[in-house]
Amino acid sequence: MTVAAGIGYALLALGPSLSLFVSVISRKPFLILTLLSSTLVWLVSLIVLSGLWRPFLPLKANVWWPYALLVLSSVCFQEGLRFLFWKLYMRLEDVLDSFADRISRPRLFLTDKMQISLAGGLGHGVAHAVFFCLSLLTPAFGPATFYVDRCSKVPFFLISAIIALAFVTIHTFSMVIAFEGYAKGNKVDQVIVPVIHLSAGMLTLVNFASEGCVIGVPLLYLVASLTLLHCGKMVWQRLLESRNQSGPALR
Amino acid sequence: MDRTEQRARSILDTLGEELIGILTPVSICMFTVVLLVCLLNSDPSSPSSASFSSIATAAYSESDSDSPWAKLLGAFLNSLVFVAAITLATFLLVLLFYLRCLNFLKLYMAFSAFVVLANLGGEILILLIDRFRFPIDSVTFLILLFNFSVVGVFAVFMSRFSILITQGYLVVIGVLVAYFFTMLPEWTTWVLLVALAVYDLAAVLLPVGPLRLLVEMAISRDEDIPALVYEARPVIRNHHDSRLVQRRVWREQRPSNSSDDVENNEVVTVVRAEEEVSVSVPLIERSRAEESSETFLEGIGLGSSGAIKLGLGDFIFYSVLVGRAAMYDLMTVYACYLAIIAGLGVTLMLLSVYQKALPALPVSILLGVVFYFLARLFLEVFVVQCSSNLVMF
């Protein structure tokens, strides 16, 4: 595709994350570091998965169940890694709090912790978009474009950018939900994140059917909006709670 | 209703600023080299990439018809020659520093910066003009190039230049040298990078290593090492004292500030001036018998204000790795970029723990090489399989 179209597809997949980055993350250097490290964690998980699955690739063309297995194993592995990431973050929080005490500064606020988990989620989302969408765009610059048979109404790059945008949203906000869920011990939040991730992955399998992307992609966006709503509700509740808590305590 | 707790600045506002101050120019350098590689190498029929002879290909020049074993052996010989040349040149630098020939070193640094900017910069500009069919005549081009190079020489040579311009020119010099290194044959590049990582480790950490000798001499004499280094933070200058001392690696334990690397930079009391010189080694020999030589000290250290300093050689070899990864595919570029940044982060953490000069190449280069091969062998197949069927997770 042409350079203009390529830039358009890239912005489609990464536009919201770019604006999130510029407005929230680039203001605090620590969040940039969090973003980079969570991108690295996602990349490492992807490399491990590809190493595990390498003997079985390339998979046969029109059979869908190996892909289901692949998605299942990948999602399980990544969710497990998310839990480990949270453990690491807890340790980091202790270090930061003790450092704040040492230089007599206030400890991490609730909004700080949420911003860190947002940066972590954004890192995962950006890594997904970069590896699944951008890395296919850039070799394909040139005068023509590419269509796949299964989704023949829309150029391949456009549909992959649209799917990548949904996944960026899901990754970003499910990390916030997950961290809050682990911190509070809230079972609902803890369970809902792997469920969202798995259902999103499985929904992309719908694309195997001929013209399946017409159904699959809107459903995927439904899941993404559910994630967004749940995260917004949860954050709002937490902020109200903490304001009520600190309100009566003020002199 | 006291809202001062909300208004008080959290530690999150300023934590990690110094690290970002080093990561940004490294990322810019790598991005520019990748851009240049993509723009200038997309045309495989161009003759410019065909012949490139330098000291790094003196022992063996790779050709496609050789067996992998022959290529590996040849690459190994090449790297040996190159590392030997660099060791020799660094010992020469140590000798000159010992004999206090600082003016000579300073002049040589200015000369080498000029040659890099004019010669290598001019070559790349001509390639770009050719690629984009940009209409410009040779007289205008020469005048602009000359001005550009002279300003660059002043920027790295004089210590009172605007910090942003100095940093910009250092990044440009890094980009130019790195781009030319990416034109080496493929096996030679990878083996050379690993060899340089090992050399850096030895040169900085072994007691007999040239870089360690240099650092110890500079500290004992309380002088600055002549080198092209990138300083991450703007310097506040004291106008009374024109002879400032900037230590490359030393972090003075000032009782007022905490000894942590991550401190609030509200109070900047350090003042120093720089006497920067640099030394060169024959790195590139043009077949037109023009010699340009520079070496850029590698290694990472702390300036006396706590700002991080990274040698220009590190910029160059990181960018060479990423540029070579770009010649294969952009997925490897992303993987190598993340690996190098992770390596740099690890090195900086070690720096804050050990508080002495550390080699910045080994961790990043080794991680970068590992990630390149993993990405090329495993990741690419996996991701292309999944995304071409629109299966994503």
UniProtKB/TrEMBL annotation, chain A:
Its main location: membrane. InterPro entries: Aph-1. One of its GO terms (cellular component) is membrane. The chain crosses the membrane at residues 6-25, 30-52, 64-85, 116-137, 157-179, 191-209, 215-236. Keywords: Membrane, Notch signaling pathway, Transmembrane, Transmembrane helix. It is a multi-pass membrane protein. GO terms for biological process: Notch signaling pathway. Belongs to the APH-1 family. This is Gamma-secretase subunit APH1-like. It comes from Eruca vesicaria subsp. sativa (Garden rocket).
TrEMBL record, chain B:
The keyword Nucleotide-binding does not apply. It is found in: Endoplasmic reticulum membrane; Golgi apparatus membrane. Its EC number is 3.4.23.-. One of its GO terms (biological process) is Notch signaling pathway. It is a multi-pass membrane protein. Keywords: Endoplasmic reticulum, Golgi apparatus, Hydrolase, Membrane, Notch signaling pathway, Protease, Transmembrane, Transmembrane helix. GO terms for molecular function: aspartic-type endopeptidase activity. The chain crosses the membrane at residues 20-42, 75-98, 107-129, 135-157, 164-184, 190-211, 334-354, 360-379. One of its GO terms (cellular component) is endoplasmic reticulum membrane. Homodimer. Probable component of the gamma-secretase complex, a complex composed of a presenilin homodimer, nicastrin, APH1 and PEN2. The PAL motif is required for normal active site conformation. Belongs to the peptidase A22A family. Probable subunit of the gamma-secretase complex, an endoprotease complex that catalyzes the intramembrane cleavage of integral membrane proteins such as Notch receptors. This is Presenilin. It comes from Eruca vesicaria subsp. sativa.
